[in-house]
Amino acid sequence: MALLKIARMGHPVLVQRALEVPDPGLPEIRRLVDDMIETMLDAPGIGLAAPQVHVPLRLFVFHIPEERGGGALTPRVVINPVIEKIDDEQVLRWEGCLSIPGLRAAVPRMVRVRYTGVDCDGAPVSVEADGLHANVVQHEYDHLDGILYPMRVTDFRLFGFNEELAKFPPQPVEAAG
Ligand code: NI
């Protein structure tokens, strides 16, 4: 296993559409996934998409630590993911990104999504998610289409450096509709 270098905003790999993984069962893919999980946990972060480690393929890893509440999830991968909306309810969620260190913003996201894909054994993944789980898969999926969260910001007053936002907490974020 190895720690991978994380691409930062400005690198072209982060703004291109990543390609389907032709054979999710290859040992090279499993090694990449293992290294991405190690890199995510070391950072630390709760999600990491392959383009963020300079690999333009459609897969991401994520986990939800116990301390974030709402049901912990162990680290896992989704290869060739597809996300569908379940209904139209959206909410503003605070997000950061390992490719944009030190900053965060409130971004409109679907409250609930269904996502499908496969894992490293080629086994199907099909999950209905809400809360932080839904949030992280939408953020990571965006990376596969070359979308970074600042591109989704609708109110730039809710975008800043973590240290300043901690000193001057913005007003509570209302549901976006
Ligand atoms: Ni990110």
Description:
The structure is a single chain. With 177 residues, this protein is an alpha+beta fold. The chain has one domain (12-167): Peptide deformylase (Peptide Deformylase), CATH 3.90.45. 20% of the residues lie in helices and 30% in strands. The protein is built from three helices and eight strands. The protein has helices spanning 27-42, 131-144, 162-167; strands spanning 47-49, 59-64, 73-85, 90-95, 103-110, 112-118, 124-130, 159-161. The strands form two sheets. Strands 1-2-3-6-7 form a five-stranded antiparallel beta sheet, with helices on both faces. It has a three-stranded antiparallel beta sheet with strand order 4-5-8. Strand 4 (90-95) and strand 5 (103-110) form a beta hairpin. The radius of gyration is 16 Å and the shape is globular. The chain starts with 26 loop residues before the first helix and ends in a 10-residue tail after the last helix. The model has no long low-confidence stretch (mean pLDDT 95). Residues 97-99, 139, 143 line the site of nickel (II) ion.
Topology:
Blueprint: H1 27-42, E1 47-49, E2 59-64, E3 73-85, E4 90-95, E5 103-110, E6 112-118, E7 124-130, H2 131-144, E8 159-161, H3 162-167
Antiparallel strand pairs: 1-2, 2-3, 3-6, 4-5, 5-8, 6-7
Bound molecules: nickel (II) ion.
Nickel (II) ion is lined by residues 97-99, 139, 143.
Described by the principal axes of the CA atoms, the overall outline is globular
Number of strands: 8
What do the pLDDT scores average to? 95
Stretches where pLDDT is under 50 for at least 5 consecutive residues are: none
CATH evolutionary superfamily: Peptide deformylase
Bound molecules: nickel (II) ion
- The percent of residues in helical segments reads 10-25%
SS element count, helices: 3
Distance between the termini: 43 Å
Number of domains: 1
Please give the CATH class.
Alpha Beta
Biggest pleated-sheet summary: 5 strands, antiparallel
Radius of gyration: 16 Å
